[in-house]
Amino acid sequence: MSDPSLAVELTQHLIRCPSITPVNAGALEVVERALASVGFEIHRLTFSQADTPDVENLFAKIGNGDPHLVFAGHTDVVPTGDIKRWRYAPFSGEVAENKIYGRGASDMKGAIAAFTAATIKHIRRHGKPKGSLSFLITGDEEGPSLNGTIKLLDWARARGERFSHCIVGEPTNVSKLGDTIKIGRRGSVNGLIRVIGKQGHVAYPHRAENPAPVIARIVTALSHHEFDQGTAHFDRTNLEFSSIDIGNAAVNVIPATASAQFNVRFNDSWTLDSLKERVRAIVATAAGSTTVELDFLPSNAVSFLTAPGVFSELVSTSIKAVTGLTPELSTSGGTSDARFIIRDCPTLEFGLTNETIHAVDECASISDIEALEQIYSLILSNYFKT
Hints:
Elements: H1 6-15, H2 27-36, E1 41-47, E2 55-63, E3 68-74, E4 95-96, E5 99-101, H3 105-126, E6 132-138, H4 149-158, E7 165-168, E8 180-182, E9 184-185, E10 187-196, E11 200-201, H5 212-224, E12 238-245, E13 253-254, E14 257-266, H6 272-287, E15 291-296, E16 304-305, H7 310-323, E17 328-330, H8 338-341, E18 347-349, E19 363-365, H9 366-385
Helix pairs in contact: 1-2, 1-3, 3-9, 5-6, 7-9
């Protein structure tokens, strides 16, 4: 490829850093060098806690006062899987057929490169913003999300930072760049059910207590339960079982226990506590007198919403000006670090398309990366002009 744009060049540099969570592998340095070149104040912060790996993070800021716009994202990526299945080496940043290949190309190194390039060009053209512009970049989004954005936000708040709005560069678009903005996400919680029976011979069932029919009743009851019918901006809450296990290889033995694990994606009809209470009630009714253990794994993924308004309209208008599309304001998909940032300011997500994220041969269109840079540039101009 001849004469790559700044956004494309930065995307390649970032992909060539094998930053599988929680390893940084030089990815934050790519962003740091680029932003420092136009006068950003840079802070590199490493956070840790017991039984979790240390995570490197970056906070960068230019300007002072309000309004204060934040670009947020993560440089860490998921593992590659079987490297032999990749068309090009997953950390090569190879260019072919107008695409950049590599782990993180879409999720979300391409977007980080695009908003970094847009910022550099904006500052070179207009000088410091009339307000503040910051970057929140973590290396912990694809992992447990304990030593990244949460602690970075706490650190920023403690030093007096107050954010007005945030854009997270997650790959939100379904089929074309510009088709979707995320204005919120459903919450997520995992649970494990264990039914306690009594082992015995299948020929003498009266001397045993079979947990299999009980776990079947519980799975059926939870799977068929209608938690809600959705809300103004959210789909219905859904509970899905991902595993049902008895672990009994003997055909003539009634097992002692049976277990099942599940995930719930819940909308703004629920808090974590109210949702757990509902699940417990359904399990208790289905189990009857049988002993059942129900445990919920710790969760920091609650539902959130940035209500449509002036900010979402500014972003939508900028997207349409570049792509010709009016984006859908969506709350679908999995979780993201936007769930933490919403505590401090209204937060939207907009990046590349998500068709190859976490997949073998993850890639991003060069034309999409360059168009995304244009969109972010227009957002910057419109935001600080407004």
